[in-house]
Design goal:
Length: 232
Amino acid sequence: MKKVFLLALLIVAPLLATAQFAPWKAGAIVSQQAVSSYGVKKCFAATPIPDDVWARMQGKSYAAGCPIPRTELRYVRLLHVDAEGNTRLGEMICNKAIAKKVAGIFRKLYENKYPIECVRLIDDFDANDEKSMTANNTSCFCYRPVNGTTKLSNHAKGLAVDINPLYNPCVRTKNGKQTVEPAAGEPYADRNKDFTYKLKRGDLAHSLFMKAGFKWGGDWQSLKDWQHFEKP
């Protein structure tokens, strides 16, 4: 009887673990046991955009008139660890030119427990950049101009990734006046302070993106976009 029970456990346990990943729901907490049973490699995948995800994007991140073809974009699944140590499911849309590199970067961040609070499609925030950043949501693709201009952002091409944006805001100073995006990120504009989710030069996220050939907004002179990495 004991052998039968153990055999049943060996069969059922992986099925229960797999159930935590199907459907893939960004933000959901999963156990380490479930990750091991499911397979870490399967949790970091860059694939063509599934139909259900494509439908979620319409009229939001994939705005009317967007010239970027679906075939140029990829759906990236990933795991990330938040500041409380929870392992969470994440998802992101990237340009196919960087998708595999991005998946690899996030796998290394996950393996080293680099804290990232939230990785969801910006469509969950109605493709509103301010809402997404205020929720500290790490994201990539969104067809939109640079805030305050008519110039397309590299996010519009899926070639830019913003990491923990609430705590690593975009800071502009003009005529002595400072503007912080998101507005709720103003307490974190002072980079001399230490706080959770702070991204800084030489840390793991910065090092991995720079090694992969990205440029960092923290190096810019006209403004400081501490969250932002983009592929030229």
